[in-house]
Amino acid sequence: MPNNKNAVYVFGHKNPDTDSTCAAITYAWLKNKLDSEKEYIPAVLGEINAETEFCLEYFSVEKPKKLESLKPRVADMRLERIQPVREQDSILEVVQKIVKTSGKTLPVADDRGRLMGIISITDLVPAMLSSRQNHLTELEIPITNLISVLELSKLQGELEDDVFRGNVYVFSDLTYYSRISRNGLIICNRHEFGTGFMFSLEPKYIIVADVDDSSVLNPIEDYKGVIFTSRKNIYDLVQAINLALPVSDLIKKENLEYFDLYEDIEDVRKNLITSKYRSYPVVDEHGKIAGMFSRSNLMDISPKEVILVDHNEKGQSIDGIETNRILEVIDHHRISDFQTMGPLYYRAEPVGSTNTIICKAYMENNVKIPKDMAGLMLSGIISDTLIFKSPTCTPEDKKLAEFLAKIAEVDIQEFGIRMLSKGESLAVTPPREIITRDMKRFIMGNYKVSVSQVNVGDIDAYQSIWEQVKDELETVCKDNNLDLSILMLTSLVMGGTELIIAGEEKWLAQAAFNMEKGKDNIFIEGMFSRKKQVVPKLMAMVYSKT
To answer: 510 CB contacts (<8 Å, ≥6 apart)?
Structure first.
């Protein structure tokens, strides 16, 4: 995160409307002003509608981040930050790294840093034992490994190859009639080097052992190969040769068990039930190694910190909200199935818009309200109160809206009409999107109910698609295992709302709103509020029958 601050996500309910989106942005802005220890990030839980998009563009405010889920992921664990090994790294180098890791396992990366395999201490033990058995034939060892592991210093010659390919000989084991392979390497001591005999064997490489100071040896003018010196004695050099071999042949590349940063922890736990390993590599979206974790890391997961605005119900919030730490709730709705893991700051007021509460918070903290934030708070108030026509509107909403309009330099009526006219155009919007964009679910006694609300212009202009909308409402009701689904098409132009109902228990709505028997829709003049004019009547009907 920027500046290494702890991130706190501020967001409204699913299917975001203008009030919830603007509240997330304006409250995050205020919190960043008041708290420099954390970074407050505004977010939304779905696609922004046309009305909200108009407001953001009008006041030149960037769209907030879209969150898909806050369920704990691998990235939320305390990963062991390790330096991966490479195929050409020496056995000795890898052993030295691996003994310092908790899981005694390391990932292997390719040239681009992507995961290509893993290697563990158990893979290395046989190779370390073989170094005691003097297998010095047909070796392929990167020159850099030889120099590092055998602690070589170059005395003479130019290195033309990156890899040594050939046999290694100890000079004292050779006879007068011996022949060596092409590209061979001879290990000798200072006295043997001084006799000059080995040059007739034409080795490509010579290592002179027991040399603390290379200046005591004279270069050989006619020799075309490369001469090294080492402080190690011949015995140690021979024992160390195999430790310079690359680990490429020891790497596990088949049936790798690894996880990516964005996998859900719950899925990880399920996978580990059948796993025989204790440590696992983690990769990012590009396949690059991000770290390692062991089973014990699953017990050490840092919950994300969040602030909820314009909602408090689990069903209306992001998936996985119960696993996160809720710091605050700023809302103007009833309190429903709300539980938290610890204490928090909760502010709920009976006003028409969450942005009314946020505006008061700016004023209480003596924070000067900039034009763009004033414009967004005003937009939220206008949207939720339908330019003060909704029964949820209070004198406080209107008073603060007028205050914010002066800062934003807009005329409330003119701007409000322009904004609300950007509401849903039913003729060009898929019926399911109309229904689900602002759909809220409620538990009413033994019944599961959804109420969707959409602001439109002239309702009568969309009569041609009503049958499609009704059919889709039935489908949405069944798909979500609901007893009753209601769609509110609210129009300021017509001064009310067209209710469309579906579901096995639609008699509840028919009775609550005095609908004609057998009818699935009714226009109710003066109805603008889901919260005050629809939900209470439904609940009253439910509990009157129990």
So the answer is: 501, 517, 519
